[in-house]
Design goal:
There is one protein chain. By secondary structure, the protein is mainly beta. The protein folds into two domains: 33-137, Immunoglobulin-like (Sandwich), CATH 2.60.40; 159-395, Jelly Rolls (Sandwich), CATH 2.60.120. Helices cover 6% and strands 45% of the residues. It has two helices and 27 strands. It has helices spanning 2-19, 263-266, and strands at residues 33-36, 39-42, 49-56, 64-72, 85-90, 96-102, 113-123, 126-129, 131-137, 159-165, 178-180, 192-194, 201-204, 207-217, 220-224, 226-228, 234-235, 238-245, 252-260, 273-278, 286-293, 302-309, 321-328, 331-336, 339-345, 359-367, 383-395. The strands form four sheets. Strands 10, 12, 13, 14, 15, 18, 23, 24, 25 and 27 form a ten-stranded mixed beta sheet that branches.
Length: 396
Amino acid sequence: MRIRSFVISISAIFLLSSCGGDEPNTGTEELPKLSISSVTQFEGEDNTTFTFDVLLNKSFDKVVTVDYQTEDGTAGRDIDYVASMGQLTIPVGERSTQIRIDLITDNIKELDETFSVVLSNPTNATISTAEGIGTIRNEDTFVDIPEEGYITPESYAGYTLSWQDEFSGSSIDANNWTFEMGDNGWGNEELQYYTGRSENASLQDGSLIIEAREESFNGAEYTSARMITQDKKTFTHGRVDIRAVLPEGQGIWPALWMLGNNISSIGWPACGEIDIMELVGHEPSTVHGTAHWGPQGQSFSTFMGEEYNLSGGEKFSDKYHVFSIIWEPGKIEWYVNDNKYYSITTADVNVTYPFDNDFFFIFNIAVGGRWPGNPDATTQFPQRMIVDYIRVFDRD
């Protein structure tokens, strides 16, 4: 009896297994996987739409749903694109659907920007790729240049206009300007690579635009431009007017300045340095006028200067201001919008006075350095210095 009972039990188990098929039925099956594509295209002029494909890796016998939401990257919602959120449905047997995101287009020159579309909370599916990146390629060349601001005349009693650059041509005048290039820190631990590219220095509507950009270039993380008139346009004494709109932001350091043209033979600081205007970007309402000097062979300078502050929350990035010096034998005076705020004379200089020799101009935006510090998460790029004109007048 015991042997017969054992055989019957084995048979019952075999029959039950046979009824269930080749594999046990667990009550579950593998869910399909959802993914979203990334999209890259030019911004265009109007009615530009980014289309993101949402795909299943296989068809399914149940309806699949998934939530989606746009998120900012360097592009901003309701500034660069129309924010969107909702739920997608993929019907039974189908494998794809789409998300369409409209751009807010303009003709302003900008760096390429990104935003993302993120999937979440799927039903009847899992997510293999949750984020699609939308890259807005910018093909615009137009920079929004302010029209308002202070302006100075093209003539003064007792002076004769000796040189000017109104930046009204189609390209930067090589008879006036040379581009200095490289990323050697420029003596201040700066981070930018100075280029001669049109992306970093160009003309538009009678203005020079120097642009600092956050981008990888020859091993540097930032690019900018540094333009000089050395050995091309040099001056001794007179009045200098430069009308400009300045950039701002942590780590941004624009300057309109001068060095002695004999720097190649005697070096800095012996050649002298006249900073007509400097601004450190975390103080956008303050500019500095400074003179530097020192004995030949010294690695640091003696300097004196003063700052000029705008009131009422106004910033030098809001509109044009005119930065001037009146430069006479033995004396230099600094002005903003014809308001004098500082001066030095030979009595202030404790070595041979270097400021009665030929000097050349330098226009640049540095990024980072010992004085302004480095950019941080608050710094917006690109940053631009817009120069309407430079005019040099000789005393009659």
